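We close this part of the discussion by returning to an individual protein. Part of our work consisted of pairing the sequence of a single chain with a tokenised description of its backbone. No coordinates are needed to read the tokens, only the vocabulary itself. The amino acid sequence and the backbone structure tokens for this protein are reproduced below:
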Amino acid sequence: MPDNDTLCGWGDEAKVAYFLANADVIVPRRAEQITLLVELLPFPRDAIVSVLDLGAGFGAVTARILEHYPAARVTCIDGSQAMVNHAAKNLGKYGDRVTILKADLAERSWSRVLQPSVRIGAETSGDEDHAFKAVVSAIAIHHLSDERKRELYREVFQLLAPNGIFLNNDVVATPSALKTRFEILNLAAIQDQEREQRGIIRSLEEIGAEMRERLRLAGGRHQSRIAALGDQLEWLTDAGYKSVDCYWRYLDLAIFGGVKEGAPETY
């Protein structure tokens, strides 16, 4: 993979297809993460809310939001045309409740694909009627440089309505002293999910070999810029978010974020 590939390999159809077929197995506790990400959104089930899903991939989080909130509308952003194509297929049944847009979050201009009323810098971006009630992201932002992460957190803050919430479900840095142990426990989690979902029992060595082969095919290195959780909580605070915290964590996977405070919400 070239160093200037801002999509970190996710423009490759084969990589996307592998992830689509195996995400629920190879991401430890994936179902638990998606369920909690949606349940953390502080809205009544019948609320009319507008949600932005960044790095939406093939639409797993968006689909769960649309099912959980029947009156919700979700805008999906992803820089990979392959992912956009899969999302369009997977989310087509939701009709005009979902909008799928292609834009690379590594570029500061990404928000130009949004409606003018909610673009970064738009006069109405802080207006509750035109901004997003929630912005979510799952296993995506870690591909950005640390500088770009910080910028994106500020950009998301501008796009949120008063009392809007940002939730990021992502990979965070592993404590160096526990790196080997985290790797073993991650493989064990994959082993459990594979057994439960597919009835297949493989050794940790076999699963580890498959993960290393996927890494070899990707150019021999993990295509991401993983940041420490503590640093990212500081960046969110610096951007203006309140109630910043980590709401869930398992090994090097976490759900964290914050709220753009405003007047008390009524529904």
In short: Residues 176-217 form one domain.
